[in-house]
């Protein structure tokens, strides 16, 4: 439902009036120790330090006369579009491009729409926009989150303890927020990030005196020999948590990258592949459990500990990765020529691969690695001192730090397996290549086809969720693990 922050009545002759339509649902904010009212007041103040005090996954907009202020964390997307009316500008704020288009249709302003005219609020920035009319000035960006790099000692044990303790604190606050008996699902591959979360959440539940049966580790298998499902079993057997596993077996046809393009509203190949896999998993999870609400994921763990193969990206060197603060979380930054106004950068852009699939299936997602308090610890790690610019040393660092932290905080020795992307682990080794185009142009072409026909944007993306659920149900066997 739209919330009109200023008058939408026709203005008297000669009177100039702005109009702001807020389509953001406040219930989708995951606030850990701050009320909606307190968070909005912090934003209204225009103080970056007060906004930094908002804890959780959030996106907010407030209006003060003709001044609009917006801010968000990585965990929740936020877009805006400025349309022109006779009596003044019309600002539409929403999570999605198609939401903006449907509002423009309702207002008779659809002829002004193009997806490239929408803007993504970059994570970790306060945006101030002045609605003063033809032409409206560019927004002003102020950082509200600026962690200090390289501030922690170069000791693996203490770094791991600090990192996992920060994650535990955010997870504990989240557990305080949700219902005491609500089931919790973790999208689980047996990798470092999802593995640490399963161990940590189990530890926190036991510490509270709760039953660990609330917790499920959901692993996707689009092939009977899917690598993640096999790894997940090995991981949980090694940590005595095998009772938590449930394998989501789906037909390979359920992994549909074209549906992912429509739901994510993007065309970056790796993000679309990851989203297609997540859609298949969440469709099957929703089919099995119509009332399940809470899903936790490990998105952001690779970005925090810089665990991406640099060799696969010709734009990057190890020096650019280690010398640029939050490069993987934010991209090159709002002042850089490569910064995308339409999409933002880094995980600020890419987290939609996680958020949008969960949202369209009616789940409330939680991504603790993407929270500022966790990123702040990760950015404090002295990567240069620990790696001496060595690629392989950098790639090994994540397992060492997370493993040490889990051992110190929970007493569990977790297995560390080589990195594997979610979209790869759902299939038998190397078989995923037959399900995803290998050239970026295919993804761009699919995006262009969808968004050049504006009629397709009139349908709610939740309709695609119904189709995905039908595909998942064609899997053979029950899939229970």
Helices and strands, with pairings:
Blueprint: E1 3-4, E2 19-22, E3 30-31, H1 36-45, H2 48-52, E4 56-57, E5 59-64, E6 67-72, E7 79-85, E8 88-94, H3 97-106, E9 119-120, E10 125-130, E11 140-143, H4 156-177, E12 184-187, H5 192-208, E13 215-221, H6 227-238, E14 245-249, H7 257-264, H8 269-288, E15 294-296, H9 301-304, H10 318-323, H11 327-330, H12 346-350, H13 352-360, E16 364-366, H14 372-379, H15 383-387, H16 391-410, H17 422-425, H18 440-452, H19 462-472
Number of self-contained structural domains: 2
Q: Count of helices? A: 19
What separation lies between the terminal Cα atoms? 40 Å
Give the DSSP E fraction (strand runs of 2 or more residues). Answer: 5-15%
Characterize the biggest β-sheet: 5 strands, mixed
CATH fold call of the largest domain: Rossmann fold
Unreliable runs, pLDDT <50, ≥5 residues? Answer: 6-14, 475-481
CATH class of the largest domain: Alpha Beta
Spatial strand order of the main sheet: 1-2-8-7-9
Cα radius of gyration in angstroms: 22 Å
Structural class: alpha/beta
Mean of pLDDT: 90
Specify the helix fraction band.
40-55%
